[in-house]
Amino acid sequence: MAENEIKNLSKSRxxxxxxxxxxxxxxxxxxxxxxxxxxxxxxSIAVILDAVNNLSDALSSFITMIGNFLAGRKPDKKHPLGxxxxxxxTAMIVAALVIYAGITAGVESxxxxxxxxxxxxxxxSLIIIGVAVIVKIGLGLYFRMVGRKVNSAALSASGxxxxxxxxxxxxxLVSAIVFVASGLSxxxxxxxxxxxxxxxxxxxxxxxxxxxxxxxxADRELVSAIKKTVCEDPCVHGAYDLIIHxxxxxxxxxxxxxxxPDVMTADEIDExxxxxxxxxxxxxxxILVGIGIYALNTKDDAVKSLRSRVIGLITTHDGVLxxxxxxxxxxxxxxxxxxxxxxxxPDMHAELSAIQKELETVFPQYTFRLTMDIDA
Length: 376
What we know:
Layout: H1 3-42, H2 45-71, H3 86-114, H4 123-150, H5 153-182, H6 187-214, H7 220-231, E1 238-246, E2 252-261, H8 266-284, E3 286-296, H9 301-314, E4 320-329, E5 334-341, H10 348-362, E6 367-373
Parallel strand pairs: 2-3, 5-6
Antiparallel strand pairs: 1-2, 4-5
Helix pairs in contact: 1-2, 1-4, 2-3, 2-5, 3-5, 3-6, 4-5, 5-6, 7-8
């Protein structure tokens, strides 16, 4: 994939999000009008709350569209890496609106339990609610499909919200049918139950967005794909310590260590780094901002043997996920090695100290410098 193709994809993504948001706004406003009409003529608090919920969905789509516009602005002096993280803020606002809608629905439903009012549904009202359910299911699935396709957390959140709205409308429809058939009014109680589901969904959306902002483990498939691309270079014998930083759904910066033969010249290393960075960007749309070097010994059999023995001893310890970056300095008799430990260990630093002591006991003639890497 060429660089201009990536830019075109970015522009296409913005257009898709904007178009989908407009569809959501128009559809929800139409549903608001129909449901508000049905709610008022039938004196149904559940239907009125459903209409209010659709109004919040229209607002969510509008916020998503605005967020997409702001996130797509070009980098400037204050924001040299662009404005992509605005989309995370947008998703948080959508989640907050969902939580607010759930709390409001719960409060109004409890009021109706305390002071009940008898609804009056007509056949037309039931048909309108039934159609609204179908429309909401279709809209929710469409939003989630597009959200996953263009990697938009805000669109995906709006899709999840729309599917929950379909559940809400279904509950309202069922309670209406029960009332028409038996005269038993359940809508206020259904409203309380619905509000709990809405609040739970809102907090789930909020948690996912906060994970994006705080920073979470990179996608395993992307990590594997990038390492594979790096290792395809003829000079690379191993790729380690890949750290990916996200500045928006489509803006990723990364750093990595590569293991290369210790006989390579500075010119050869420079050419290799440029080649690797270009290939990773073109194939994965990830900018490698730093490539660290591990020198792989190719000249001394004694050092090769020491490397094998040291790594073999370290890997006997529980919780050691990987050992790499072995280096031996003959002048200072110093062995340097990087170790990745499992986060599930009760005390990672204590485990590293135990490994250090064992190495010093087995190899007293050497000084060991152990670095604990992150299992990112």
